[in-house]
Amino acid sequence: MPTVREARPEDFEAVTALLEELGRPKVLGTDQETTQRERYAEWLASPDLYAFVSERDGAVTGFIDVEILPRLNFPGPQAWVPDLVVTDRERSRGAGTALLARAERVARERGAFSLTLESAYWRTRAHTFYVREGMDDAAKHFVKVIGDFVWPPRPP
């Protein structure tokens, strides 16, 4: 079974590589690497942002981050998961379940009314996993990119 721990500054390269695997813009080896490393350090230091990694045999195999967001007309904040990714070789071996459980624990500790995430429509295997973990398919996601890059990533 993988272990889950808080992400640390020295996990930047592993976390960033996982996010790139998920389809996030390339950072490693680009002119954005320093800026993104600083943003990652700020994320780790923020009291309303959480980041965890899964490990097996000392290697980072997965990542999840959680934002605690205030919401109007709800009894508490919402726990939002912007990113959950596990390496290909580690999928279906417990890392995703362990990471999601850690995120849910944080959400409950912070008094959140829900734990929410989004997943690209073509990631049907992930959708099955989320439903199996007790989540409901509850919404559609819409995006209008106003920056100068292609988003969301296209299906492989």
Could you please describe the fold and organization of this structure?
- This protein is an alpha+beta fold.
- The protein has a single domain (3-132), classed as Aminopeptidase.
- It is built from four helices and five strands, in the order βααβββαβα.
- It has helices spanning 12-22, 33-45, 95-109, 124-132, and strands at 3-6, 49-56, 59-69, 78-86, 114-117.
- A five-stranded mixed sheet has the order 1-2-3-4-5, sandwiched between helices.
- The mean pLDDT is 90.
Give a short synopsis of this structure.
The chain has helices at 12-22, 33-45, 95-109, 124-132; strands spanning 3-6, 49-56, 59-69, 78-86, 114-117. It is α+β, with helices and mostly antiparallel strands and 156 residues long.
Shape: globular
Q: Write out the strand line-up for the largest beta sheet, numbering strands in chain order.
A: 1-2-3-4-5
Which structural class do the helices and strands define?
Answer: alpha+beta
Query: CATH class, please?
Result: Alpha Beta
**Number of self-contained structural domains:** 1
Low-confidence stretches: none
Mean pLDDT over the full residue set: 90
Name the CATH superfamily classification: Gcn5-related N-acetyltransferase (GNAT)
What are the main properties of this structure?
5-stranded mixed beta sheet; 23% strand; 156 residues; Aminopeptidase
What's the layout of helices and strands?
Layout: E1 3-6, H1 12-22, H2 33-45, E2 49-56, E3 59-69, E4 78-86, H3 95-109, E5 114-117, H4 124-132
Parallel strand pairs: 4-5
Antiparallel strand pairs: 1-2, 2-3, 3-4
